[in-house]
Design goal:
Length: 164
């Protein structure tokens, strides 16, 4: 039986980019973050196994729904022998990620609903401000953009007390 040349099992970074739709710079970034891996030829060129196509597709799909790269990397690292994710992996991970996405959606709804409270206030330190300082302790004591109460200057010689 004839052997299939190794070059047919491997993709250059340009080929992986063309096939996956990801920019070469994105592929280098994914590799630097441990999402995909490559080997080097004797001429020091990167070569990716064909399963990198599925890994890149997995990463890009997860990114599109808002999953952070660190979370994606952790999920890929949990796969046995760093294998390529399959449909069952995606189903399992999407169930886990659904809760995170639901919480982010709820947070965005809260931000949207309170956005008009801060527009035009100028100080962003209102007692009800959930955007800039949701646990604003100083807002309970005073209003305004100051963190510290204003200090009074000592009276200058010859100037009556209480005047600026």
């Amino acid at each position: 039986m004839p052997q299939i040349p190794q070059s047919l099992h491997e993709l250059s970074v340009g080929q992986l980019s063309a096939r996956s739709g990801a920019a070469v710079s994105a592929l280098h970034f994914y590799e630097s973050k441990g999402l995909i891996s490559s080997t080097r030829t004797s001429g020091n060129q990167r070569r990716y196994s064909r399963d990198a196509l599925r890994r890149v597709a997995f990463v890009r799909a997860a990114q599109r729904v808002g999953i952070p790269l660190a979370t994606i990397r952790d999920a890929l690292a949990e796969l046995p022998e760093e294998r390529t994710p399959n449909r069952a992996d995606w189903a399992r991970l999407s169930e886990i990620w659904r809760g995170e996405l639901d919480e982010r959606i709820a947070q965005l709804h809260r931000l949207r609903d309170h956005l008009t409270d801060c527009i035009g206030c100028g100080c962003l330190s209102l007692e009800t401000c959930v955007l800039s300082n949701p646990d604003d302790v100083n807002g309970e004591m005073m209003t305004g953009s100051r963190l510290m109460p204003e200090r009074r200057r000592p009276p200058e010689p010859g100037r009556p007390t209480g005047q600026p």
